[in-house]
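Lecture 7 notes: from sequence to structure.
We start with the chain below.
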Amino acid sequence: MAQPAEVERAHILAAIEAEREEIFALARWMAAHPELALEEREASERYRAWLSARGFRIEPRAAGLETAFVATHPSSGEGGGPPLRPALLAEMDALPGIGHACGHNLSGPASLLAAAALAKALPASGLELRVVGCPAEEIGLGKRRLAEAGVFRDADVALMAHASGMRRAHRLFLGNRKLELVYHGRAAHAAAYPERGVNALDGVIALFVSVGLLRQQLPRTVRIHGIVSDGGKAPNVIPERAAARVWVRALDDAELDAAHERVLACARGAASASGTRLEVREEEGQSPPLLPNLALAGCYRRQLDRLGLAESGPGPDQAIGSSDITHVSRVVPTIHPNFPIGDGLELHTRELAAAAASEAGMQGLLEGARALALTVHELLRDPATRRAVAGEFRERHGAG
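Predicted structure tokens for the same chain:
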């Protein structure tokens, strides 16, 4: 006979509590030994060893990525029907110069802890647990490659929880188009023969002027920002080459496409005005907007309520960036909630990196693990929630 839901929840939370010190040690080790995108060899090895010791079967080098993996804890087949297959995502990479300033040393271990607790507390259930080791989030690469390789194709949901200065069950992400715009001209002596040159930097300057004027006509959900990546070599030489890197972001597919085309129009106009030749390069690490699943986010929110935790911070469409998890959201119902590790923190800062190694960071990790594990438990035990999540995904995916 199946145990009452409240008893199972108590067992899950107890299993999380039993593993806290070991997972804290892993999180603190990562904070002290940050590894950059696609170089997360030691973190990946430690993730895999931790899961293997708890009965997970490890598939290394998922999607051909050296540090990616899929760890599976098989289902007992309880009930005779198909098992629930949740994919818990475990990020691992850090940022150049400022380490785990995105808190991946907390979000990755939170997924490991949630999965291990579920496997321990529900050994005889129709639950096929997966932990997907996701490298290179900071360059927008890992989850895209994993999604393209079909890693999430038969998963029922994908979920993770991310360190932040807020607590939110539902967060959105902007889609991102990344452009390198290269202008080619003709070099000349800037004092002796300026009339013989074609100044490639003029093309870049005209581009930024045009984009600056464009911004006032864009929806509030669109962002455009960029840098001059090549402005010439010496002041007395008219640059024959100049370049800019420009990112275009938006919350909606149609808005992203439209803004991307308008930026390209600005770039072409700048080339025409400056007499230069434009070369357009699309950078890797681009991503679509997140396809939200409010039913799944609502399930996570109910677990926060059970834990006595209130949401905080700005709304789901405020103070947001981009992430490669949006590729996963196009394949399977996906959420990316936030757990707090301090007040007033911003991602990609030294302050957040310090918080990610602190006691507040460890408590945030526990919150994320508890809420994730309880979310999976409700999905397992409540067919109506599963139907709502799957139905919303089909509806949104079809509309997209």
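Points to note: The mean pLDDT is 95. The CA atoms of residues 234 and 366 lie 54 Å apart.
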